[in-house]
Amino acid sequence: MSTRISELEDLVRPLRSAIVAFSGGVDSSLVAAVAARSLGRRTLAVTAVSPALASGELDGARGVARAIGIAHRTITTEELAREGYRRNDEQRCYHCKTELYDRLLDLAGREGYAAVLSGANADDAGDWRPGLRAAAEHGVRHPLLEAGVGKAEVRELAHELGVPSAEKPASPCLASRLPYGTPVDPAVLRRVDRAEGALKSLGYRVLRVRHYGDLGRVELAGDELPRALAEPEPVLEAVRGAGYAEAEIDPTPFRSGSLNRALFARRLPVA
Q1: Is residue 119 located within the same domain as residue 186?
Q2: Are the C-beta atoms of 18 and 42 separated by less than 8 Å?
Q3: 22 shares its domain with 50
Q4: N or C: which end of the chain has fewer CB within 10 A?
Q5: Number of domains observed in the structure of the chain
Q6: In 81-181, which residue ranges form alpha helices assigned H by DSSP?
Q7: Given 135, 160, 185, which residue is the final one in a domain?
Q8: CATH number of the domain where residue 203 is located
Q9: In angstroms, what is the C-alpha Rg of the chain?
């Protein structure tokens, strides 16, 4: 086993027991796999279920948990009951993670788990991540971030441990498809989810449907975009069929965090 895996295990083992905030994505899955190796039955993977969770993600998380041999449970979170989250300003993720970590720490306290772990990695430190502030306020540990493990290495280590989600595309919460300032509403989240599900049924893997009122704008990965531009109508019809009056395909390849970059651009001083 690589020295990096051993390093991560050495970070986790002294905790004695832990809950892993577990989405089933590659980051949290790697942390869960390391925790299972280090702590055995004294660890638990917990997936939060809310209207912001995309269809299929819960089933995927359950499958990954079974494959890596960690106990798995779900909790219900109510971030939509928090006005700050519904307002969807630049602190939305802070309110979301505050809700999550409140629930996980409550569970840890009731059942005797010593720590809560997240899948934040070293690359997250260079992006807009208000959720890290919520984590700091709750004492949440980030083994990947603490060890300096970035996204590319996360996937390498996940392959090494046989984690099924090693190549899974990132799938952040559905609210991330709404530009900052657009209120988060369950009906809107369902519409985004339907549109993305329809595109996945057409064979597209890495995608986002950005919500702009009546317009659904499709972002696709660079290797999938040429197909959509050559045959746009099935893509556009899939989005309209999900409830959007208008649909369009962004001609530039998908890049994670595009709405965050727009936020930073608005903050730049005028020359």
Answers
A1: no
A2: yes
A3: yes
A4: C
A5: 2
A6: 83-87, 92-111, 131-138, 143-146, 151-160
A7: 160
A8: 3.30.70
A9: 19
Q: Are 49 and 58 in contact (CB under 8 A)?
A: yes
pLDDT in tens, 88-126: 999 999 999 999 999 999 999 999 999 999 999 999 887
- For residues 224 and 215, what is the distance between their CA atoms, to the nearest angstrom? 21
CA distance 109 to 154: 29
* CA distances, 180 to each of 105, 131, 225, 259 (Å): 28, 15, 25, 8
Distance separating alpha carbons of residues 8 and 110, to the nearest angstrom: 27
Question: Where among 107, 125, 160 does a domain terminate?
Answer: 160
Domain range for 75: 3-160
DSSP H or E segment with residue 216: strand 215-220
CA-CA distance, 72 to 20, in Å (whole number)? 9
- Torsion angles phi and psi, residue 83, rounded to 5: -60, -40
Residue 264 contacts by C-beta under 8 Å, 6 or more apart in sequence? 128
